[in-house]
Amino acid sequence: MKIPLMWCAIIFSLGIFLASFIRMQFVFIYFIVIVFFILAFIFVNKGAIFNICLFCLVFSLGAAILVNAQSLPTCHIARQLPFGTRSPCIIKGFINSEPIRRNRHASFIFKTQQLQSGSYNRGCCGDILVDVKCHQVLKYGQGLILKGNLRRPFNFKSINRRNYKGILYNQGVYLVMNVKSPLDVVILKNNNGLFIKKIAIKLRQVMEGAIQKYTSTDTAPILEAMLLGERRHIPPFIINSMVKSGTVHILVVSGFNVGIVTFAIMLFLKMLRIPRRIRLVITIPLLFIYCLLTGASTPVVRATIMAVIFILAYLVKRQPDIYNSLGIAALFILGINPRQLFDIGFELSFASVWAIVYIYPKIRQFLRLDSLKIRSLRFLIDGCLVSFSAWLGTMGFVVYYFNIISPVTVLANLFIVPLASLITLNGFSLIVFNFALPKAAIIFGYSHEFIARLLISINNFLIKMPAAYFYLLPPSP
Asked: Of 145, 161, 193, which residue is a domain's last?
């Protein structure tokens, strides 16, 4: 069977998708998994029969993983909270994400350990989203005791089919806590969290400082989004204009960034005269640190896994297969959190890569592009075809979620993507020179200003063209 891991990922995803519509007991689906496992073992040498049993096993495994993720343990705070009372609760735990500060408030994911509500006092588990009014600087891993009101997240519905409650649910968050006074926050001396994540957050803060030092407040958010995955400072009008042109994908950390980081690490280690195989081994953990540094978004996780697979294939002297690499990345992400299947980032990331890998070569072969003698023209057409293939692969999801069709996308990507690539390369250079030669970093700061403003201007010009985009339904206010 060709590209078996890609097919396994597709069948696994179908199992998750079906299980999201049908209520099943975990014991029942677990029994089905065991049955198909035994059948696959019995018919291991039976060719087609084995393949059918194997696919049924993978399908049922996908369903089982989603059912298991939806079955909260008895200690989970969402099952323990006595909703009959509106009295404030006291919760002990630690900060499980990098706090986001707005005005005098901070919001973060909080890993719960102890719950007290009236006379009810018991150990608990699970994450909640906390919004706290606090003047002190809060950090990832800090132990806290919080007093506030717990509630279910509101189900804010929008025209793009996404809602606040669903987004939190996909992250495993079922409750929200509001802490209204700094006096209701007690900072504990104990420290928790992953050591490697603390390093990644510290590096992220240093890089943010370098970006803000050499760029203006207007263009710094664009560079922070492209390098670090930090989008909360981007003005809404920029995001809206990018959505209209179909180029909003440049405002996230993608596989291109992972490729640049891989190349930069390998080049630096080569300058130190480190042997090639050792360079590859050193590169793997550094890629995982960069993945954590950027928030471990789905596109970065996918690109990191695929890069690691290609490195490992080289180390064992095997030819890597991009389809199977894509399948492994999907199985890894869905195995950890099957609800990622319903996340727009997961869907767009994998759909775009699949389209470029599968559709682009088909169109290129159909047009017989290799027979074109003029290299510059062939290069230009190649760029159009890659952009067109990605647009075809993701158009269904974009229409479903955003109710918008952007014919200008293919043209826009010819200009916007190269400029975004320059911004990314320039940004990495700025950060490196900030440490090595600070005076030279100023040059990269000025060049970023020029490129970023040029990108915004070109994008605004393109979306004003006739029939550049149109909504299937009126846009949400």
From this structure: 193
* Of the residues 193, 216, 243, the one at which a domain ends: 193
Band (pLDDT 50/70/90 cuts) for residue 65 is very high
- Which range, 178-187, 259-268, 316-325, 457-466, has the best average confidence (pLDDT)? 457-466
d(CA 135, CA 337): 34
Whole domain around residue 170: which residue ranges?
77-193
Q: In this structure, what is the dihedral angle of CA atoms 223, 228, 230, 236, given to the nearest 10 degrees?
A: 30
Residues 461 and 351 in one domain: yes
CA atoms within 13 A on the CB side of 159: 11
In a shared domain, residues 155 and 122: yes
pLDDT digits over 218-236, tens only? 889 999 888 888 888 888 8
- CB 229 within 8 Å of CB 291: no
Token pair of 5 as six digits: 């891991």
Q: Are residues 65 and 125 in the same domain?
A: no
Across the strands, what pairs with 112? 93
- How would you classify the pairing of strands 127-133 and 105-117? antiparallel
The residues pairing with 151 across neighbouring beta strands, listed in sequence order, are 176
What is the number of domains present in the chain? 3
Q: Is the pLDDT of residue 81 over 80?
A: no
pLDDT at 457 exceeding the cut of 90:
yes
Give which of 55, 26, 54, 60 is closest to 42, Cα–Cα. Answer: 54
Sole residue written with tokens 């608990």: 124
Q: What is the pLDDT of residue 130?
A: 92
pLDDT grade for 59, boundaries at 50, 70 and 90: very high
pTM reported for the whole predicted model: 0.83
DSSP structure class, residue 475: P
469 close to 407: Cβ distance less than 8 angstroms: yes
Cβ-in-10-Å burial (0-12, 13-18, 19+) of 247 comes to buried
What is the DSSP-derived secondary structure letter of residue 145? E
